[in-house]
Structure formats: C-alpha cells, structure tokens
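Quick one - inputs below.
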Amino acid sequence: MESSPLLFRALYMDPHGTSIFTTFSTPGNEIRGLSFFVLAITGGIFLVVSALLIHVLVRYRARPDDDSEPPQVFGSLQIELSWTIIPILIIVVLFLSTARVLFSVQDAPKPKTALDVVVIGHQFWWEFRYPQFGVVTANELHLPLSTREAPRPAFIKLTSADVMHSFWIPELSGKTDVLPNRVNEMWIDPQSLGLFRGQCAQFCGTEHARMLLRVYVDTPEQFQQWIANQQRSQPELNGNGAGFGNENSASGAVRPVAAVSSAPNKVAGNTSGNQNEPKYGQFVFEHQACINCHTVSGTVASGRYGPDLTHLMSRETLAAGAAENNPQNLEKWIADPDNFKPGSLMPAMHLSDRDNAAIAAYLETLK
Amino acid sequence: MGGESIPVGRGIEVGVERPARPTYLEVVHSWIVTVDHKKLGILYICNGLIFLLVAGVEAMMMRIQLFFPNNTFLSPFTYNRMFTMHGTTMVFLVGMPLLFGFGNYLVPLMIGARDMAFPRLNAFSFWISAFAGLLLYYSFIGGVGLSGTGSAPDVAWFAYAPLSERAFSPGHTVDYWTVSLLLSGIGSIGTAINILATVFCMRCKGMTLGKIPLLPWLYATLSFLILVAVSPLTACQMMLMVDRYLGGHFFDTQAGGSAILWAHFFWIFGHPEVYVLVLPAFAAANEIIPVFSRKAIFGYPAMVAASVGIGFISLGVWAHHMFTIGMTSFGNAFFTLSTMLVSIPTGIKTFNWLATMWGGKIRFELPMLFSIAFLFQWVIAGLTGIMLSVSAWNWQLHNSYFVVAHFHYVLVGAIVFMIFASFYYWYPKMTGRMLDDRLGKLHFWLMVIGFHMTFDVMHFPGLLGMPRQIYTYEPDRGWTLLNQIVTVGALIQAVAILIFVYNLVHSFFRGEEAGPDPWDAWTLEWATSSPPPAYNFAIDPEVASRRPLWDLKHPEDPDSAFE
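Output:
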C-alpha cells in the first residue's frame, strides 16, 4: 500500500507528529522499549497461530469426491496441558517485564532539582501553575530541558475544576487522568528541545476534540527568561479607564452596560489613531463580564473561570489550540467563540465591531 | 424430509399440521402475546437487527465527519450524540438482543426441552428490553434539554460522572439514558435467570452435565455473569438518579463525591459485559466448527472449564479500563496480571478449535467461512488485548484509536462475524429455508475486505496520538489518509450488511427448502422439523451422548461408547 512508507515515517520519524514510538522523555522511552518487547512476543504468537490455521485450512479441506467421515478424536490431556503451561510461562515473562517498568515509572523518587507543575483541567482548556515561581498560564506548558548531567524533571500534580480530563503528550509520556476532587501525579524529564503536542484524552464534553495541549521544552536559560516574563504583572494603561467614564474601576466593574455603550461616542473624536485603542480596549474589557472569568494580573481583572490572559501574547495559539494567535483570529474569537470552537464556554458578548477590535488591541499589549 | 423429524431415542414421528391460513391480525396478535421461546427468540433477533441498522447509520455519520480534518458535516453536539447512541445501542440494543435471541431459540431445543423454564418471564424480559430501546430513542424527540443541550445523550456510552451529573448535563437526555439502561438491565436479569433455570432444570433424559452441548453450557456461564455484572450497573444508575434528582452526592465531586466510584461501578459491569457478548460468539463457534470439520469438538471438558474460567476471571479485571485513573503501582500490577490471565483460557479455546479442525474434512460453507474469519480475527483481537493489558503501555494506548480498533476487533471481528455465521447456520432451522449462497458469499467477502480496511488501519491513528471521541482533528497531525481509508472500509461494510439484510428478506420468501437437517449436524435442534413445531418435540427426546444425532446416523460407531 502506498501509505506504508508514509506510515513508517509517521510512526518513527515525523518530527512534528505525536507518535508513541518517537519519545523524548524517560517514562515515554521506558514504555516504548517495553512496547517493542511485547510486540515481538505477540507478533511471534500471531505468526505461529496463523501459520497453524492456514496449514489446517489447506491440509484438511474436504475433497469433492470424499463423503466419508474423518476419524473422531475427542481430546488429549497432554496436548491440553502443553497449551496451558506454555502460555502461563509467556504471561509470567510479560507480567514481570511490565511490572518492572510500572514500578520504576510510578514509584520514582522525586529529586531535589525537580520542577513543580500543577495542571488543572477545565472544560475545554488547560490551566498550568508553577507554584515555585508564582506563575499561572494556560494551554502552553513550558518546561526546561532535563539532561543526565543536570536533571530537571517536572513533577506534575493534576486535578480538574469540573469533569474528568486526561493529560497526554504521546512523545513524552502516557496519559494521566485529571479528576475533580482528587490529585493525581506524574513526571516527565524532556530530553530534547522543541514543541511537543498532545490533547485531552478523556471525553469531557462538547469541545473535547479542541482541548489541545502544547509543551515547549526550552533551554534552562530560555526557561528562566520565560518565567521572569510570566512573573511580570501588567499595568493599568490609563488610570483605570479614566477618560472613558467618570467612575473609578471599583465601581466601574459593576456599571450597567448602557453606560459603557455610551463611551464610544465620548471618545470617538480623539481615537482616530491606534494609540488609544488599547486603552479603550482595556476600559471595555474591564467593564464587561470579561473580568468575571479572566485574570490580567496587575489589573482589576481577576476572574478564575477562564484562562489567565496576563501574557496572552506569549502564547502561539488561542482557545486551547483551536486557532493560531494572531490579531485577526483574536478579534474573530472575541466577536464569537463559535467561529473556532462551537460549544466553548466563553459566550459571545455581542459588542460592537469597534469594541471587539479595541479589546483585541488591548489584549495584544499583553506580551 | 420436509414435514418429518429424525427419530431420536424411542422414535418420534411427527407430521406438521398445516392449519388454515390465519388473518393478518391473528398473526400480529399471536406474535404480541406469544410466550413461545422460538417466537420470542425471533422477536429479539428482529429487534437487534433493526437497531443494528440504526446504529450503523450513526457509525457512518461519524465516519463521514472524520473523512476530512476540520470537517463540518456534523456539529460537535451532533457528533457527540452519535457516538454515545452508537455505543449504547450496539451494546444494549443490538448485542444483547441478538445473543438473547439465539439463546432463547436454541437453548431449549438443544437440551431437548419444550420451552424455557419461565415462558411468561421470557416474554416480559423481551418486551421490557424492547421498551427500553424505544425509550432511549425517544430522547431524540422528547429529550430537549435546558439551553438547547440536546436531544439525545452526549456523555459517551460509559457516561463518566461528573459529566453525567446535572451540573454538566442539564436537561433530560441523561435521564433517558439512565432509565433505559435500568429497564434493559431488568430484562437482561430476567432472561439470565430464565436461561440458568432452563439449562439446569429442563434437560431431557440422559443429558447429564457432561453431555450438555457447549452452546447451552456457555449460555449458562454468561447468564451467571449477567446476574453478577448487571446488578452494579443497575445500582450505579440508581445512584446517578439520586444525585440528579434527590440531591445525593455519590458522584457529585463538587460536594465531595467521587468520580472514580462511577468508573469502578461502570467497569465492574462493563468488563464482564464484554464476555457476556463474546461468549455467545464462542458458543456458536463451538457448534459450527465441529460440524463443518466433520469432527467432534476437541477437548470438551477443557472447553467447558475454559469458558467457566473466563467467566470467573473476567469478574476480576475491570480496572484495566482505569490504568490511567491514578491507581497505585500495586493496583496497576494486580489488574495487569489478572487481565493477562484471561488469555490462558481464551488461548485454550482457540487451540481446541484448531485441534478440532486438525485432521477433519473442512467444508467451506458460509457458516464455516465466517467462523474461520472469526478465528483469525479473534487471535488478533486477543493479542492487541494483551498489549493493552501491559499497564505501562496502556498509559499510551488507553482512550486512543488503538483501543477503538481493539474493541471493534472483538465486537465486529469476533462477535458480529459469529452472529453472521449463526444466521447462515440456524436461519434454515428458524424459517425452513436456506439463505442464498451467492448473496452470502458476496456478503462474506465484502465484509472481510471492509472489516480489515476499517479496523486494521484504525490501530495506527491511535499509535500516532489520536484520542477517541473527537469530532474533528487538525490537518497536520498525519491522521487524514488513515481516517479516509477507515471511512471507505466502513462504507464497504455497510454495503455488505445491506446485502445481508436483503438476503434475509429475499430468502424468507424465495429460499430453497431446507429440510430438518441441512448441514448433516449432530445436536438435538436438527432432530425436529424446520421450523420446529410449537412444542419442539412430540415425544421428549432421550440422549446417550453429546451428539445424539451422530449416534443415530452412525450406530456402528456411537459417541456414547467413548464418553
């Protein structure tokens, strides 16, 4: 079949793929080694049994001119014993080799240099926290390279905010389910730089298919830089939206929508240039329901229900990988999340095109 | 030989009376009020076939959606309903009715009884199961939920809590699912009690435990499994209802409930259920393979022991569906070992079938063709099962398309293929007419080609990281071509199944007369006319061996001399 060399490449060589046979982390490598061993044994059994079956079918087919019944054989204890005991021996081997990998991965001690990561599954996105650094981000996990000389495995605690999910990056490790009201644990020590992709592997609702995962493995220096950037909070651009409304942000957050929609008229004259768009965008953002769900650290936005947007522009994708993170997509996404992800829990706010563009312009400042 | 039966034991001579042609209304009435195990069996089978077509359409819709990446043929809402309904339908409304149908029809005949032990319970079980099916499908029109959440359940066939709780599944779709499964569970338990009582209390004279044909033996085993396994399902459905309507917190994680609890309950049911479905396939193979190899089954005691062994071991393997849920390493190791142990009795059965064929004179009639394909596919399904039991590897394979391919290999490659074999083998007994051979051959080859295109190829997207139950995927993941091959294969299978259904209808009116014993077989059902009269046997048969008709046909070399 034409697809077989393609398939081979996909299974063993594709640098962008998610094959379980191209692994770059200890648990993944151990599993891969075990899987080749099991494949060899089961492949051997398959060859023997199908050879026997084909032999029987050819050798003992009925001949057209022969109506007599063959000799009736009712069984043989010796033969029964042989095909009972040989499989038992095979199973002992399989079980012991599985148990070795199982215990070495699951019960590995946590080294002092380990990085702590907390993964929280949400319908339909991922929240990542780095408790050692006070960093919260979403959907794109950054990890430092772990080498034999400087091991820096990530020890990950997983829990869910709503329903069951499952955390799976095939090139690094197997799945660990993400359950509400329970904390599971796993670890990975990525030994190669680059992007590793995965996605939620436990059906969790409408947009289960678009709950994608990206893991970036950085050099230790890049990782430190990334952490330093993520620790920065964002400024209020213009004194809590002063100039767009008379109240301060504390009361502004509960202002009726009607008051907000009057704001564009006030500023329409002096925002022909783009430089005021982000300010106005922040004003709209902070006076809409956006901040009930989203956090922009350093500002009044401190919602916990949706992804943290503090450094949105440091991410390559939107909506848990549903779209590339660029200005057009961002605006489209804000206007109506159903454009990329029907069933996403973020509602369309039915704002004017200008407000949507302004929010996008504001979010684009969140580097 | 049309109207006669082969005399068994003390010699039976039965002429079938042909009463005056009943009116249409009388026919319908007779089928509705019937307590005859044969009519109920046929009702079960028709029920299963109708839902097979419905669930097949659902499968085709999913395959069309997955033909292109980012396809918009189905919305995510619809797609999620499709796989939930496909899975639930195939297990509860296709698999169970078909297996109960053949069981109901064949078990009393094969043990020389005139009916099941409890004929009225039998009718009750059928009608409540049929009602459960209608109730589930009524959710398409009656189940519109709050905020338009849907018109059919969309929580996957295992309905993991808390997704199935009210917080995440408002509206009534999950309620339809829950109540429907509760009712069908009551029907299943009724039938299980009935089959157990029939096999153990209704056997004809001379049929000791060691002389029961393998089919009734296996049906007794799976009935026992149903009794043990369906109860937890019923229990957890009730707990879910309590959560949803009475403010309980069994699975309500926001109030301290446990999501894992549901998973344990469901799979304590779910895994034995797989064996409930596959044992009838084994049962049919146990009857068909010897007849078409012209040899007695090899190692009858080992086959019985292996089947009962599978039944017992399968009660202790459920958590192999949960290797990723966060069990301790010892828990994982235990279920790895117990799951691997299942392969020993299963291997014994496979080798015994091979040994039965060894030295025989194999006739490649349609039932045997399907059985051979079954044997081959069952070996592969078993081996991928061993791969999945390797818990560390399971962390990668779990919930991927590899698993989907594996269990479809079991459910289609083994069970559906043996259901087809059973149709070709016993349809003449049930209707008195043979199924058309040319259509049957076409069905067989299309089915084999379609099956392997679909389910062989389906393993690979799983190895490439494709999870199950996703309504779409990105174009750059390398899954596109594989999914397209799978979809084309599914289309071929759909054509094959349509040909099969046409054959069933066509041969009912136009098929060749079968006579009581078209396959030159050996068990009691072939001793009476086709179709059998309401009372099955005019005189209670009496047997001296496992193959009474062999004894009769070969008085010089009877089995009874060796058993």
